[in-house]
Amino acid sequence: MALKTRRKSTRKAPGSAPARETLARAAVVQTGGVAIGTLRTSLGLTRKDFSRATGYSERAIADWEGGKPFSEASRKTMLEMTRIGDALARVIKAEFIGAWLKQPNEAFDGFKPIELIERGEVDRLWRMVFELESGAPN
Question: Is 129 a member of any domain?
Answer without folding.
Answer: yes
